[in-house]
Amino acid sequence: MGKKNEPHLLKVLGPVHVWALGVGIVLVGQFMGWNFTIAKGGSLGSIIACWVIAILYVCLIMINTEMGSVIPEAGGQYAMAKYLLGPLAAFNIGLMLVFEYLMLEAADALVVGEILKTLSPDVQPLPYIILSLLLLTYLNYKGLHATLNLNIILTAIAFFTIIVLLFSTKFYLPSQSLINLNGLTNGLPYGAMGILGALQFGCWFFLGIEGTVLVVEECKSVGRALPVGAITGLITLIIGASITWFVSSGLVEATILGKSTYPLFDAAVVVNNPIVINLLFMGTMLACLASANGCIADASRAWYSMSRDTLIPKSFAVLHPKYNTPYRAILFLLPISLAFGLTGLLDQIITFSILSALLVYILTAYMMVKFRKMYPLGSIERGYQAKWHPVPAIIVFVLSGATLFGMYFGYWINLLAGFVFYLLASVWFVLYRSRDLDYHTFVSKGIAQWPRPKGY
Questions:
Q1: What range(s) does the Amino acid permease/ SLC12A domain occupy (predicted)?
Q2: Can you give the pLDDT at residue 456?
Q3: CB of 181 closer than 8 Å to CB of 16
């Protein structure tokens, strides 16, 4: 009876909440960051990178959703790794997830500060950044259901502003259209290598949608909420990404667009309609807030899960006695993200977030192949079944590897620093933290319900 009365994560989420989490985290990438693809690969390289990376994420969602529907634990890819790869790999994947979302949250805070400066050069953005992150942290502290209800509203309004910007250009009337792709785009100035380099920031159109699996333990029906929420979310993002490139590239000259901190807002300024400009200002702000909101939720779930499984100190695994939220993990991660955001290095922060995500994707592709070997179709109930296995896993592995290679052009120091960081973290875990690992606690939550895997 004692365990039943202990605090636990509440099953309160439905498909629309999963959609709001996935799209809410990612939509900010259509308001900022994606345009660095133009600096790396030109206008044509940018849209090619967008669609190639869309294929990567379609495949990633397929394999994530199958494994996530079978392993309904907080932590997503971390939870998959602890059953399929073991403690060291699980520790690294958990850490990568935390930093992926912390860096994205930091980028959100940075953009909020930059766009506030457009109001007046006298505006001091720091108090607003801190206040907004404190408010979102408080909402996550109180409960995920209310947090994602807010994300539904924020995300829907932000997406609506993109549609408004599209129609404000009168693209549907050739004689009156403001879109000038022929005059403002610069094609493919760096050739095929430019496309390869652009893949890195092409991820920003979709990066974070895979975080839907981090909250499966809080879904009322994982087999319904996860696939419906994640797939509709990805469709939303593909539509939004295509519109974003079309409008921005048709309104802002390529060399300016490739350096912008808030490209959609810059595009709205060109339209020269006060209503549209104010809407895009609001849309950019709301997209940043929705993204930060979701990032707090996902990063804290990964950190909480690692602590619950004894990979890091168990003090972070404590749930709030009233709200049933991982409040210690939520509060602990806030100042770390804020500190990175205040550096002002947007492309560097984005790069570390993308690097962490790509490493998770590569390991997830490997886990999918291993999962199907250990548990063939029919051996264990699945809430969703990925089609054409192992093709999606192979595509994720190849495109993630190609994107990592493309990061070498211009960001090889960041790439090296990231690998060194995770290597040192692994050494620390093996030499010190692994001594405190309770293996029974590490795997006891779900393994008892599974059949013996094939070949083991």
A1: 24-432
A2: 64
A3: no
